[in-house]
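Hello again,

I reread your note about wanting to compare the complex against the isolated chains. To keep things tidy I'm splitting this into two emails, and this first one only covers the full assembly. Below are the input lines as submitted, including protein chains and any nucleic acid or small-molecule components. They are followed by the predicted structure of everything together. The single-chain runs will come separately.
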Amino acid sequence: MKEINELNLPENLKYSKDHEWVGVEGDVATIGINDYAQDQLGEVVFVEVPEVGDTFDAEDEFGTVESVKAVSELYCPIAGEVVAINEDLEDAPELVNESPYEKGWIMKIKVADASELDNLMDKAAYFEMLKG
Amino acid sequence: METTIKTTPLNQWHRSRGANMANFGGFDMPLWYDTGVKAEHLAVIQSAGIFDTSHMASVLVNGPGALPLLQYCHTRDLSPLANGRCVYGAILDEKGHVIDDAIVYRFQADQYMVCVNAGMGTAVAQHLKSQLAVIQKTDDTHGTVDIRDLSEKLGKVDIQGKNAAKILQPLLDNPKAIFEKMPYFSFKGHFDDNNPLADGVRLKDGTPILLSRSGYTGEFGFEIFIKTDAVVALWESILTAGEPFDVVACGLGARDSLRAGAVLPLSHQDVGPWKFINHPWMFALPLAPDNGSFTKPFLGDKALLDPKDTFYTLPFAGENLRKVGSGPDSQVLDKNGEVLGIVLTCATDMAIGRHDGTILSIASPDLPRGFKARGISCGFIRVDRPLEVGTPLVLREKKRKINVTVVSDVRPHRTARRKITDFLDTKI
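Full-complex prediction:
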C-alpha cells in the first residue's frame, strides 16, 4: 500500500471526494479513478462502464470497479452525457492500476454545467482531505 | 484501551517487500504482494505458492485422558485415527455452534495437537480445560490431560501447488524416505527437538519440522510447523529452491480465493455461531449410516439433531467474475424475489471460467481451443431451507445483483487428493 506522500496526483486534474479524477478539455471531461483509489482497491479485475449516450447528474452512480478484494461504485463527479467509454478496459481492466490517468481512463462526458467543476478539489485540497 | 496488533516472524519480510498489509485475527498479515493477488492465485494452480500462516494457533493435548477429551470436544470420531494422521472437524459449544474449526493431529495414542485459527489458541485451550473439569467432576476415572497453548510459540509456512514436493526436496534431509507413503492428511516429524518424532523430518541444517500433507487451497502441498526462530530461514530457502519453478509468495487474498474455489470454509465466516449441520462439510460430523444419529457422543450433538433454528449452508458459483460483498448486507433471493438468507463468502476464483456451461480450470486437461479463464465468483450462502444443486438464485448487495447457481463443487481438477507420486521428481 502506498504512503500518501507516494501518490501520483497530477496537478492539472480535478479530484472528487470519492477519489475520481476529472480532466477537462473544452467541454469534454475525462473521468477515471485516481492513484489512491486504485491502490486501495488492489488489482482491478472488472470495470463496469456506462453506455455512450447515458446521462448522469453529479454524484450519480455511473459504474463499478471490481478488484479481487472488493466491489466499489463509481460516482459521476459532475453532470453530463457520456460521449466515449474506454473499451480497452473490457479485456485489460488492470490498466486502471497500471495507468490510472492515461490508459486507465473510464469515460468521457460532455459537461452539462461547467460551474460544477468548481465543486471539485485541486491536488492540494484533495491531498489535505486524504491526510484528514 | 489500545490493543497491540500481533506480528509473525515474517512481518519484516512482508513489509520490506511492499506487501499490502491488514489486520487478520489480530495479526498484521499480508493481503498480497507486488505480484498481485491474481498472479499469486494462478501460481498455486500452475506451480506453487508459499503462505505465511504463523498467525494460526496450535494447542498440544497430551496424557491418558487426551483422546476421550478430544472425542467429546471435536466433531470427528477420532477412535480410528492412526499415528501420523490428522483430520478436519469443528469444536462446538452445547448449542452446536462453532467455537472454531480445527485439525486434530495424532502423534501417539496419548499425544495430540489441535491446529486452530488466528487468535483462537487461548480460547480453545480454555474451552478444553473447562470441559475437562466438567468431565472429571462426574467421572473420576478420566485420565489426566496436559493442555498447552502454543500460540505465537510456533511458526507455520504452507507450500501449496503441484511443484511443492519438488521445491522442498533439496531442503530436506533424506527426502525420499519422507515422501514415501505420504497420503493426504498424513504428517511426519515434529517441531520440538526433544520429541522422538523430530528425527522423522529434518531440514538439511538439522532443524526439525512437522510436515503435514494438507493445506487450505484445494491443491497438492504441505503445511510446515517449525519453531519461530527458524521461520524466516525456511521461507527464504523455499523461495530460493523454488526459483526454477517460479514459486510465488502469496498473501491472504489468494488464500481466500483459492479456498473458496475449493469449497473450504473460513471459520467465523462460513461456520460460526450457528448450528454446524446441513453444510458442505458433513464429512466433519460422525454421522451414522442412517444419517439421523452420530457414532459417538460429543458436545453439541443433541442440539445438532434438533431441527429447530437450523440453517442450510450451500456453495454457489456465479456466471462470471462479478461478485457481491460478503456478509449480512448481502442477501440471497430466489427467482420470485423472496429473501432466503445471507451471503457468507463471495470471492472470485481467477483460475476458472465457463465453457458451454461447464466450469473449467486452467489446470483442466484437454482445454478447448480458445478457452480463457476470466474468473468466476463463488462462495457460500446460508439460507432457511434446503435447495437443490442447480437452483438459480440472485445475490443482492444494495443495488447490485448477480445471478448465481447452487453447486456441489466449484474449481475442477484440483490436486490436493492426488497421489504424492504424481508430483515427485523421479530422480530422488
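For quick reference: Chain A has one domain: 18-116.

B.
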